[in-house]
Design goal:
Length: 228
């Protein structure tokens, strides 16, 4: 599917933010499916009449089954500066997740050491540091319950692969649809109930606060939680 104006959450001369659909990949992988990176390049080239394509830098990534805010840089200067902001943890990322099991505590901080198996693309969480592991930290809070499902807001302090998915699962709260990390059933739509809700940072060029917000997907389930 092509990127259109309705998918754009924020755009200026330096940055563009898209509301990623669950199932889209950010960059090309072994499936060879068209990545969102190429779709956004094509959108910019058409919008601004750039026949020789357009510069686009990938600032961060979202897993394929995850929806929500994804940010790209339109200039090399913006890419370099946004990379620094992410590296220095100066970007506040907020996610919403739907789980079936109520968290034991309504809020808290999770710290694990994660190890990724490159052959299976599965991450395991450990309570103490082990060889080859990376420290992962997030804070969470329970927002409410609807129809036996629980909505959790998550603020990751680190940006590890599959971090939110494996840490919530380790807490006993696998994300709905995420059968890779403990939920009993996968989604026929290839999605999980994890949504990148908000990105907040100081603009790398204009030095102004930026707050980018993505509405929940309209799929007959997710949008019921929009009132929270």
């Amino acid at each position: 599917m092509a990127v259109t104006d309705k998918d754009v959450l924020f755009e200026d001369n330096h940055l563009i933010a898209i509301c990623k659909r669950a199932g889209d990949i950010v960059q090309v992988d072994e499936t060879r499916d068209e990545p969102l990176e190429d779709m956004v390049k094509r959108y910019i080239a058409a919008k601004y009449n750039k026949p020789n394509s357009a510069f686009l830098g990938v600032v961060h990534r979202l897993d394929r089954p995850v929806s929500g805010v994804i940010l790209f840089a339109k200039t090399s200067k913006a890419l370099e500066r946004m990379n620094a902001l992410f590296k220095n943890r100066e970007v506040k990322k907020t996610y919403w997740a739907v789980v079936r099991n109520r968290p034991v505590k309504p809020s808290g901080t999770l710290i694990h050491w994660l190890v990724k198996n490159p052959k299976t693309n599965v991450v395991t969480a450990h309570n103490t540091e082990v060889p080859g592991s990376q420290r992962a930290e997030l804070s969470y809070r329970l927002l409410g319950e609807l129809g036996g499902y629980y909505l959790i807001e998550v603020d990751p302090l680190t940006g590890r692969s599959h971090q939110i998915r494996v840490q919530l699962s380790t807490m006993g709260c696998p994300i709905v649809g995420d059968n890779k990390y403990g939920y009993p059933r996968g989604s026929r739509k290839g999605s999980i109930c994890l949504h990148a809700r908000r990105l907040q940072f100081i603009h790398p060029v204009k030095k102004e606060p930026v707050n980018i917000f993505a509405k929940l997907p309209v799929d007959g389930f997710w949008e019921r939680f929009e009132a929270f």
